[in-house]
Amino acid sequence: MMPMPQPRILDYFLLLAAIAVAILSVFLSSSGGRGPGRAEIEASGETYLMPLAEDAHLDLKGPVGNTRVEVSQEEVYIVDSDCRDKICIAMGRVSTPSGWIACLPNRILVRVVLSDPGSHNGVEVDSSAF
Fold first, then answer.
1. In the chain, which stretches have pLDDT less than 70?
2. Which end of the chain is less crowded, N or C, counting CB atoms within 10 A of the terminal residue's CB?
3. Does residue 50 form part of some domain?
């Protein structure tokens, strides 16, 4: 059996370079460089757009009552709703195009889309799908 060769200084350099490239690619892919995007709210046959960069709220009327949607700190969420179970409130805050919130009794859908028009129309590929 042959002895294992000892690592050389170039081997350590290549290992560190590979780690640096991996960390940099994760950082760049998570930031995306596209900005915060906007919230798209569908209710009562209407579509409302709210930029995530600006804090704001929207009060909507649905079949079972009112629902209040808020944007704060580049996240969108439902603060209050007259629905019975309040699952839409429990869904929490979303800030990425893969996130959405729905209030089914009030027929309200909240989702995040990208601000950049050349960004696949707000659809982001989920790597876990492959």
1. 27-36, 115-130
2. N
3. yes
pLDDT tens per residue, range 89-122? 999 999 988 889 999 999 999 999 986 555 444 4
What is the tally of structural domains in the chain?
A: 1
Strand partners, 61: 66
8 A C-beta contact, residue 44 and residue 62: yes
Q: Which residue intervals of 4-125 are DSSP H helices?
A: 9-31, 87-90
Q: Is residue 20 part of a domain?
A: no
For residue 73, what are the domain limits?
A: 38-116
Q: Are 59 and 103 in contact (CB under 8 A)?
A: no
Q: In whole angstroms, how far apart are CA 25 and each of 22, 58, 70, 119? A: 5, 37, 32, 19
User: How far apart, in whole angstroms, are the C-alpha atoms of residue 93 and residue 99?
Assistant: 9
Question: Judging by DSSP bridges, how do beta strands 38-43 and 108-113 pair with one another?
Answer: antiparallel
